[in-house]
Amino acid sequence: MRFETLEQLAEICRQENKTIAEVMLEDQARETGVSREEVFRQMAEYYGVMKEAVRQGLTGNTKSRSGLTGGDAKKVSDYMQQGETSLGGPAAEAMAYALAVSEVNASMGRIIATPTAGSCGIIPGVFVSAQERFGWEDEHLVKGLFCAGAIGYVIANNASISGAEGGCQAEVGSAIGMAAGAMVELRGGTAQQAVHAVGLALKNCLGLICDPVAGLVEIPCIVRNGLGAVTALAASDMALAGVGSVIPADEVIGVMLEVGSAMPAKHRETGKGGLAQTPTGRKLTKELVEQRRRKAKEAKAPAKED
Amino acid sequence: MRFKNVFSIIGPSMVGPSSSHTAGAVRIGRVARQLLGSQPETAKMTLFGSFAETYWGHGTDLALTAGLMDYDTDDQRIPQADVLAEEAGMTLEWVQGRGNGPHPNSVKIQLTGGGRTAEIVAASIGGGTIAVYSLNGFDVQITGEYPTLAVKHSDSQGVLANMTALLSRDGYNIGYMDVDRKGRSGDAMTVFELDSAPEESTIQAIRKLPHIKEVTMIDLTKRS
């Protein structure tokens, strides 16, 4: 790719009078030797999977294998039908859709990792709800995915998109930044405004630890996806209003790396700290282990090695 | 740059819940199956570290089994893979490994089928990306990101030169290669990660070279 930082990306867009999405699509095609049409087609297929995951998740038929989660997207969606939400309709819808996709993930349904499975709800939540609200064609949203991908590419290479490396800020935080920047571009903002949205969004996620109960991509991951979609919308609004990230986005990404590297192992996807080690987190983990033992007796699960 | 592709950020398309414990596990299972060259009749999986601790909630067992059936990461049959494998006549055995294994998320898979055996040790290192540490007891590393040729041969002078010359003649670029031998003049294994999948005619030509014992194609880029 021709860019390593968001500042370089915005500068290419300005000089060539292109959107971030166009630059990403071009660079991807050139770098991999695959035609633009084929690259676009694959991304369009991925957007189709995201929309299907939203639909599936809203049915509420999303009980996870552990039994710990499922059905929350439908609760929010039903609640929205009953009257005014505190958030307001469109943001509540984005939240419900993000929960839906994350619950589909936890129940072994099909999703697109954006950038990971643990943070797979935020981008579809923001995109699919915005598509319905603004009446955009699929093609517009597919371009948005290239924009989100370009932002994620910079974060992944300059900080991290792995909870085990950099905590939840690397997964949910990255997804929020990607969704916020893409939303700015989808609504006609400039590349520079999109980059400000990334900076604003990431600043609000710095330090978020990865502390899943029993090590599963469920608690608190699903809820963080729902709330993350709302944050992404808010950051895009700030940027479109002309609010800038005083600390440039690339410098905020540098802080993500600094904070992620300093994070103790117990807060990096090991289940050994944070919410996973609360009295309730430990109790749920213990129950799961017992449940697994029962199942193992019935079936074919790990015996001890001789 | 660790990431070079927009589809490693937006993607893979996968069945949840975890890119490392589910999608990565599918890909490891697929490497083992392709190394065997046919559907396994028996499969013994020894799980280490986080794979052993959290496999059940993440469906790592289903994912590995799905890989043994040669399913891709987004195959919606993954949640039923155990039942489907049993119906297909596969016998599965799950063992909790002692010690740490080579990585916190690692597994050893031993397969039999079609009168052959295959064994791999591999780990899922994040975001669906995997690292294979050994094939059939040889310490050769592959990623599964590229079409990969695994060639068992005797450790003789000129074997590597013959193979690379042949790949070059047929227009294939080698991105990475790794060799391990049991001992001087003993058995050896060479793996080639190629930029594009070789035609069957090239694979046949390698089989006909002197001192070649076995040529296996491992290609996770091919849709199942």
Outline:
Chain A is mainly alpha-helical. Chain A has helices spanning 6-16, 20-32, 36-58, 72-81, 89-106, 122-134, 138-158, 163-166, 168-186, 191-203, 221-240, 249-262, 279-298; strands at 110-112, 303-304.
| Unreliable stretches covering 5 or more consecutive residues of chain B | none
* Main beta-sheet annotation of chain A: none
Spatial extent as radius of gyration of chain A: 20 Å
Query: How far apart are the first and last residues' alpha carbons of chain A, in Å?
Result: 51 Å
Q: Given the helix and strand composition of chain B, which structural class is it?
A: alpha+beta
Morphology of chain B:
globular
Instruction: Give the oligomer, counting copies of the same chain as homo and different chains as hetero.
Output: heterodimer
The tally of helices of chain B reads: 6
Give an account of the 3D structure.
The complex is a heterodimer of chains A (306) and B (224). Chain A has 306 residues and is mainly α. In chain A, 65% of the residues lie in helices and 2% in strands. Chain A has helices spanning 6-16, 20-32, 36-58, 72-81, 89-106, 122-134, 138-158, 163-166, 168-186, 191-203, 221-240, 249-262, 279-298; strands at residues 110-112, 303-304. The model of chain A has no long low-confidence stretch (mean pLDDT 94). Chain B has 224 residues and is an alpha+beta fold. Helices cover 28% and strands 33% of the residues of chain B. The longest helix of chain B is centred in the first third of the chain and has 18 residues, at 19-36. The mean pLDDT of chain B is 93.
